[in-house]
Amino acid sequence: MKTQNRRNFLAKAAALAVAGSALPGAAMSFDGRGTMTDEEPPVLRSLAGEVKKYRKIDAHAHVYFTKGNFEQVIDIADRLNIEKLVISRPMVPGGKGEPSEFIDCNNLVLKAMKQFPNRFFGQLTLNPQYPKESMEEIVRCTGEGMIGAKLYNHVKINDPLFYPVIEKFIDLKMLILMHMGIGIARIQYDAREPKGVSIPENMVEAALRYPEAKFQLAHIGGGIDWEAACKAVIGVPNIFVDVSGSNNAAHMVDFAVKCIGVDRLFFGCDNSFYQGVGHVLGANLTDADRNKLFFGNYNKYLKSIGRNVD
Amino acid sequence: MLIDVNSYIGHWPFRRLKGNTCKEQVARMNAAGIDKAVLFNLNGIFYKNVQSANDELFEALKENSEYRKRFIPFATINPIYSGWKHDFEESVKKQGAKGIRLYPLYHGYELSNPACIELAKMAKDHKLPIAMALRMVDSRPSSWLDISKEWALKDTLPLIKAVPDAKYLILNLANNSNFGAFDKDELSLVRKTQLLMDTSGRMVMELADMMKNYGSDKFAFGSHYPILDPVTGLLRIETLRPEEVSNADKEKLCYGNAKSFLGL
Questions:
Q1: Do B141 and A24 touch (CB under 8 A)?
Q2: Running DSSP on this structure, what letter comes out for residue B225?
Q3: What is the pTM of this model?
Q4: Do the beta carbons of residue B198 and residue A241 sit within 8 Å?
Q5: B101/A contact by beta carbon, under 8 A
Q6: Is A242 in a helix, a strand, or coil?
Q7: Which residues in chain A are closer than 8 Å to B237, comparing Cβ atoms?
Q8: What gap in Å lies between CA B187 and CA B47, rounded to an integer?
Q9: Is B200 in contact with A275 (CB distance < 8 Å)?
C-alpha cells in the first residue's frame, strides 16, 4: 500500500482541524521510530461530523422543576444531535418518597412530554412502600404515554415489595430503569447512600427471579464501580446497561462491550451530556456497533412496545 | 492546530490503562489531529522518589525524535521529600522539563507548606508553569487503596495567593469551579493570574459562560487521557456555537492559549 509521509498526513489533519477537529478511533499506524508504516493510514474523522452522523436516543435523562429547564435540556440535546431523550424526575434523595411527591415528579414529566412531544419519552417514578398509589401511578402514567419506570433508592429492586411492580411491568412489556448506588467500591457502602439503594447484584437477583422482565442498570458512569457492575451482569440477558454518568473514564464503554456485548448497552447521559456522547465517540467500536449503542438498541426496545422512532 | 495540555503515560495501580505509552499517545494524537501534548508520568504519583518517574519520562522521550517534537514534558516534584531541589535541577536544567507537576493530595502536603511555596517561586524564576489537578480520578468508584479527597477550584488558591506571579495550569475541573465559588477579591486574583484551565473536567459544562467570567485566555483543550476518554474535552469546544464564541476565541481554546502560556 502507498506510504503517506508525515508532512502530508499532518497537512491533511490540519485541514480537517480547521473544518472541525478530528477524533481518534482507528489507531494511527506508527512503527515506534517516528516513521509511518505501510499499513493503511487511519481515516481522520471530523468530530463535528461524527456528532451529526449518529442518530441518538438518550436512554437516561432527567428534567427538573427549575424554570426553563426543559428548554435547557433540549438546547444541549440539539448541540449534540440527540434526537430523543427518555426523561424522568426522581424524588429528592433521602426523602420519604410519599405519593404526593412521586405524583408531582410524574406530573412534571408529563408536562415536559406535552411541551416537547417529539423529543421526550417519559418514565414514571414510584415508591413500592406505597403499593396502592404506586400501582395507580403506573396505570395513569403509562395511559398518558410513558414508556417505562425510573426507580430510585427507597427500596432495593430485589425486595419483595417490588414484586407486584415488576409483574405489572412484565404485563406492559416495559423496561424498569433502576438507579444504582456507589455501593462497594471502597468495601463499605458509601456513607451518602440510603439503605434502600440498589447495587448490581440486587438487580441480578430480581432479573433471575423474573426472566421475562426487562431491567436497565443505571449509569455505569454515575459514580458506581463500573468494572464491578459490568462483571456482575455477565450472562444475565434481561439486564440492559446504560453508559451514562459524569465519569467518562477512558475505555469504560470498551470494557462494557467486552463483558456484556454491545446489544445490551444503551447510550445515555444522565444529563452529563458531553461525557455521554464523548465516551461513546471515543470508544473503539465499529460504525455499526456505535449506531446500535447510540440509537438502535433503545429503538429496538421502543419497537417492542410499538413506540419506535421511524 | 491542536494542543492537548493534559495527557499521561505511566500506570494507574487500581485499573488497567490503555494508551499510556508515548507510542500509543502519538497514535491517538495523529488520529485526532493533535500536534503537541503536555505529558506527565502517572508513576510520579506513586513513586516515593519522584525523580525515578522523571527519569522514566525522559528516557521514554529519548526513544524517538518524534516524541521529543510532539510532547511537552512536565517533571513531578514532591517538595516534602528529600532532595527535591536536586530533582528540580536535574529535571529542569539537565532533562529539559517544560513545567512542574504537583500532586499535593497524593504526596500529603498542603499548598501553604513553605517548601511548596519555595518550589513555586523557583518555578516562577525559571518561567515554568506549575500544574495541578482537582482530582485524578472520580473518587467514588476508585479503589479502597486510593485517596478519597478531591479539590474544588478554590482549593488551589493558597498557592496562587502565596506566589501570584507564577503560572498555573489547573486540570480536570471536576468539582466546584464556578466563578460564584470565589469572593470578589479571589475572583479578581484568579482573573489577573497567569492561569490556564483545561476542558477535560466534568464541571466544564457551559464553557462560553466560563470564558466570559474568567477570561477567554483562561481555557485550553485538555483530555486527561488515558484516565478520561480522549474525545469529551474537545467536544466541549467543538460544540460551541458561533454566536457564543468567535472563531478567534475557538482557536485560542484549541491551541492559542496553550501556545502563549507554555511559551511555544
A1: no
A2: B
A3: 0.92
A4: no
A5: no
A6: strand
A7: 21
A8: 35
A9: no
